[in-house]
């Protein structure tokens, strides 16, 4: 009798609003193919401590999978564990492969960003060299949209939609008084400007977006920034600025560190308040007008009450695909999306080598940034608009979201 | 031929996510009774400068009223103008009444908080003494829920729902790593704890709320707070704290000012970062665990993409009622809600005297605060749960909210 292979799923890195849609898709796919499904509690780090959850018990049916699909956070927990190289620590690899063998795992599906793909790549190579038949597959996720070798990453569309939605609402809220004022909205994005740029999607015939967008890829001088704000204030009462948390000055340092500001108390307070608060205070002091900073916070990656319907569907499909091709024999691959056309929007699902994705970072293309470095072009909108389309929400009970509780404390005996 | 009286509507103070639902209700009510409808641009302050909008042009039909209903911010703009007393400045009153007469206004409906009700009261009394037939009516709005003489205020339910929703999502997001950690979520509420308390509504069978709730009505010592956090961390990995921006120490000062912290750089940075950031840093330094602060920001009052359906309906009904009773002859009244029963939820719409509301502040009842001053009781939930029930959203176009643009620049020639 052929042994039935199990599927083991893990989640790693920062959560997204749809990371559990990928998990739900992976579970459904495994079930459709008759494979029992286990979950790592807290990713590879948990696996090292034998923390494994029986997902056929924790998420037994379509009803619980539907709730899981719209639950934010990483249902299986997460880790930031960096796998050492096989040369440094072969014992770690042997331990992991031994655990997988004991569990009867045939396919490992790891939902994560570029660090996670590096983990998958290393484990896969080590296993192959050791003669293991276990396949290691990756499922992409990151709100930062910084993975190479694909059109976009699940998690980005929903975060982008949340950013653009909040920006359009804050614009209504902040412009009600008949005074000159500036609102600075800070988005996530330490190294890349994809989420900062998404703020520009708030511009439609029926809503208002930012006048200025600052991203890490386009360093600016504070003087040029203040000049632009000042020129705008000369012709309009309300000016809105969107800034990525990692926006940089001409010296490549964080914007609030430019011009020696880092050294004094002002700079110190700024680093506490973030770049949005810093720019608001700078505008207020230098231009003498009312200014306020708003940080959109980690809600950008967990506001599952309002996600891109398209993003959630794609996240689920990519989770399902990785498990299916893994069960079919593929290893060291990552499911991903390729754009076929912008309008009408069409993508093709495929599988790429994890080694092409591991440890690489994709920045916002320079040609999509405005000439003055303080905005994005129509090319960006053509790319990003389809990603925020469709609106999906969560399950509501008693007026608040209903989430699936994490299954910790119900780990499998090994 | 009897002169057709016009209705003039204004909005004042900080916006709410449903303040324009009250405006839409007021417009519909006037139209149903055959009255032309005008709007003050930027409240009473705009009226002093003859800034009046023809709402029958700007919002001509049900289609535009439906968009208005889910547009955040104050569609008519707002002001923070404090009307002087009639003794100080009778000329201001004479000017306002003269403008209203010239416009042919029979009813003024002013949507605002307790300051606005004071404005309505003063104008109404002055007009009556001067023999004017113009009626002045108030429509309540405030996310703070601090108006007396009524069960609750439109705007609160939606802000409370947003707070509880975000708290439940942030709890999922912030608890994914297997480490001891504390999340401090800061809500609005400088003088009252209604919004801070609303965070507790995140506790349901399917979602997780805060372990500690700090409100301005219950001053605490930082030592007692740290003790409680420390005790919780001894038995669980993740601790969540919700704090009203105006939470106070035992000396009645802002919490971050307690124990002399205000005097040093730490205290200074704290006042920049807000009480949430301050408490997170304090926990991190004193208890040596990971801690993060999240400020929910002005999104609490403008996130029209997710509101309490009940709140939006009540806001609309109260706008409509004020105009109707004004056209019937009532003056110096404010439409309001009285609770008939909690379960099933039932309210009665009525009209109270604005003088009962003006300048008063309603705090969270002491009996609804836990004995240790760091939580709320089941009585609070019984009161507040019905206010967040029902979920309504906005109109979505191109993946982002579609709002009605403010009508400024189209003011009426006087």
UniProtKB/TrEMBL annotation, chains A, B:
Pfam families xref list: PFK
Gene3D superfamilies for the chain: 3.40.50.450, Phosphofructokinase domain
Residues under site feature: Important for catalytic activity: 141
The protein's enzyme class: transferase
Keyword annotations of the record: Cytoplasm, Glycolysis, Kinase, Magnesium, Metal-binding, Transferase
Positions of the catalytic residues: 144
Site residues (Important for catalytic activity and substrate specificity), renumbered to this chain: 115
Signal peptide: none
Activity regulation summary: Non-allosteric.
Keyword Transmembrane helix: no
Cofactor(s) demanded: Mg(2+)
Catalytic activity, EC: 2.7.1.90
Keyword ATP-binding: no
InterPro entries xrefs: ATP_PFK, PFKA, Phosphofructokinase_dom, PKF_sf, PPi-PFK
Transmembrane region(s): none
Broad class of the protein's primary localization: cytoplasm
Binding residues annotated for Mg(2+), in chain numbering: 114
Subcellular location: Cytoplasm
Domain Phosphofructokinase: 6-324
Binding site for diphosphate: 14
Sample GO molecular function, one term: diphosphate-fructose-6-phosphate 1-phosphotransferase activity
Coiled-coil zones: none
Role, per record: Catalyzes the phosphorylation of D-fructose 6-phosphate, the first committing step of glycolysis. Uses inorganic phosphate (PPi) as phosphoryl donor instead of ATP like common ATP-dependent phosphofructokinases (ATP-PFKs), which renders the reaction reversible, and can thus function both in glycolysis and gluconeogenesis. Consistently, PPi-PFK can replace the enzymes of both the forward (ATP-PFK) and reverse (fructose-bisphosphatase (FBPase)) reactions.
Family: Belongs to the phosphofructokinase type A (PFKA) family. PPi-dependent PFK group II subfamily. Clade 'B2' sub-subfamily.
HAMAP family: Phosphofructokinase_II_B2 (MF_01978)
Listed name of the protein: Pyrophosphate--fructose 6-phosphate 1-phosphotransferase
Annotated source species: Kribbibacterium absianum
Annotated gene: pfp
């Amino acid at each position: 009798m052929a042994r039935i292979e199990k599927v083991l799923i893990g989640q790693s890195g920062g959560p997204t609003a749809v990371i559990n849609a990928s998990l739900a898709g992976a579970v459904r796919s495994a079930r459709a193919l008759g494979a029992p499904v286990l979950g790592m509690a807290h990713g590879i780090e948990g696996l090292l401590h034998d923390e494994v959850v029986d997902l056929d018990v924790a998420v037994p049916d379509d009803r619980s999978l539907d709730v899981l699909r719209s639950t934010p956070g990483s249902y299986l927990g997460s880790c930031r564990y960096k796998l050492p190289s096989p040369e440094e620590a072969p014992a770690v690899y042997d331990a992991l492969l031994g655990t997988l063998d004991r569990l009867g795992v045939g396919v490992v599906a790891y939902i994560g960003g570029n660090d996670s793909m590096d983990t998958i790549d290393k484990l896969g190579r080590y296993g192959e060299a050791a003669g293991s038949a276990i396949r290691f597959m990756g499922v992409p996720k990151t709100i930062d949209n910084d993975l190479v070798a694909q059109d976009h990453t699940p998690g980005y569309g929903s975060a982008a939609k949340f950013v653009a939605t909040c920006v359009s609402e804050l614009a209504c809220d902040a412009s009600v008084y008949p005074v000159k004022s500036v609102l600075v909205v800070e988005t996530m994005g330490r190294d890349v400007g994809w989420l900062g740029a998404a703020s520009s999607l708030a511009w439609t015939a029926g809503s208002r977006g930012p006048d200025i967008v600052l991203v890490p890829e386009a360093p600016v001088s504070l003087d040029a920034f203040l000049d632009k704000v000042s020129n705008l204030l000369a012709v309009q009462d309300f000016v809105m600025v969107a800034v990525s948390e990692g926006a940089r000055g001409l010296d490549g340092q964080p914007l609030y560190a430019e011009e020696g500001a880092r050294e004094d108390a002002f700079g110190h307070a700024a680093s506490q308040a973030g770049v949005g608060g810093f720019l608001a205070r700078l505008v207020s002091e230098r231009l003498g007008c009312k200014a306020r900073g708003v940080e959109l916070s980690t809600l950008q990656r967990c506001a599952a009450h309002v996600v891109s319907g398209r993003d959630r569907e794609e996240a689920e499909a990519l989770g399902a695909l990785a498990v299916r091709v893994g069960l079919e024999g593929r290893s060291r691959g990552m499911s991903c999306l390729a754009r076929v056309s912008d309008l009408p929007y069409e993508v093709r699902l495929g599988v790429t080598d994890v080694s092409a994705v591991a440890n690489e970072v994709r920045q916002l293309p320079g040609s999509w940034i405005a000439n003055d470095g303080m905005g994005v072009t129509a090319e960006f909108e053509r790319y990003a608009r389809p990603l925020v389309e469709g609106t999906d929400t969560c399950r509501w009970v008693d007026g608040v979201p209903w989430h699936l509780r994490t299954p910790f404390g119900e780990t499998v005996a090994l």
